[in-house]
Structure formats: structure tokens, C-alpha cells
Amino acid sequence: MPTALRLGIITTCLLLAACGPKDPARMKSGEELYDYYCRSCHVERNLGARLERLPSDRAQLKPHELVLMIRHDYTQPSRHPDIRLPQLSPEQADAVAQYAYKLRHQGN
Ligand code: HEC
């Protein structure tokens, strides 16, 4: 393979790695994690991207319950569908739970 071509391939790979979508395993902020793991489903279910259309009579999980839901599939007493994201670290689960709890308690 000519050196120029080889260099071109290596450069392309490096650029893709640097500019590609962020690896979710490295995400730290609740907002970033929420946008990656949670948002699209809430939009699909017509709850609003920030849960703003969630009917106000619904159960309100506390942040620690949201952590249990995220890491261990605990959903009582809410009607939240089962989502299990054991790949989240305790810190990530905590960050996204705090963020979602805040959303839930803003203006609805
Ligand atoms: C498979 C789709 C789906 C995914 C993925 C999802 N949700 Fe939900 N979420 C729902 C539905 C449906 C409801 C409404 C439940 C109800 O009607 O009581 C909801 C409601 C909520 C509520 C409000 C209800 C409460 O108990 O306070 C919070 C907070 C919430 N989701 C957090 C999250 C977080 C955090 C994530 C990501 C880690 C997430 N959700 C991912 C479907 C989803």
C-alpha cells in the first residue's frame, strides 16, 4: 500500500475517533446522560422531551428510587416501563436521576 494512502487512512480513522459521537461510557453530566438514554423515549410517548407533558397525577419517584429503577429495574410505584441500564456507573445513575427529578419538578 502506498505510504500516502496509508497515512490518509490513519488520518481518517483518527478524525473519526475524535469527532464521532461521544462515547456514552464517558458521559458525566445528568443532562448529557438524559439526552442519550431517556429523552427520545419520552418524546415518543408524547411526554415531552423534558417530561413537560407528563400528567401531573403520575407517581413521582424520588432520586434514589430513580437510581434503583435505572440500575436494578425497580419501578414501583410508578408506571415507568422497565428500563435497565446496569452499564451506568453509580455516579452516572445518580447524575441522570437528579437531572430527571429536577425536570419532573419544574413547571408541571
Ligand atoms: C422505554 C421508554 C422510556 C425510557 C427509555 C425512559 N423512560 Fe422515563 N418514562 C417513560 C414513560 C412511559 C413515563 C410515564 C410513566 C407514567 O405514565 O407514569 C416516564 C416517566 C418518567 C418520569 C416521571 C415519572 C416519575 O416517576 O417521576 C421520570 C422522572 C423518568 N421517566 C425518568 C427517566 C430516566 C431518568 C430515564 C433514562 C435513564 C428514562 N426515564 C427513560 C418511558 C421511558
Give the beta-strand count: 0
Gap between N and C termini, in Å? 62 Å
Please estimate the helix content: 40-55%
Outline, from the CA principal axes?
elongated
Instruction: Find the structural class using helix and strand composition.
Output: mainly alpha
Mean pLDDT: 86
Q: Helix and strand succession?
A: HHHHH
| Total domain count | 1
Q: Helix count, per DSSP? A: 5
Distinct bound molecules: heme C
The fraction of residues assigned to DSSP E strands is under 5%
Radius of gyration using CA atoms only: 19 Å
Largest sheet: none
- Enumerate the spans where pLDDT stays under 50 for 5 or more consecutive residues: none
Walkthrough of the structure:
The longest helix has 17 residues, at 3-19. This protein is 52% helix and 0% strand. It contains five helices and no strands. The chain has 108 residues and is an all-alpha fold. Bound molecules: heme C. Heme C binds at residues 37-38, 41-42, 45, 47, 51, 54, 58-61, 66, 70, 78-81, 83, 85, 96-97, 100, 104.
Short structural summary:
It contains five helices and no strands.
Topology:
Layout: H1 3-19, H2 30-37, H3 39-44, H4 63-72, H5 90-104
The chain binds heme C.
Heme C binds at residues 37-38, 41-42, 45, 47, 51, 54, 58-61, 66, 70, 78-81, 83, 85, 96-97, 100, 104.
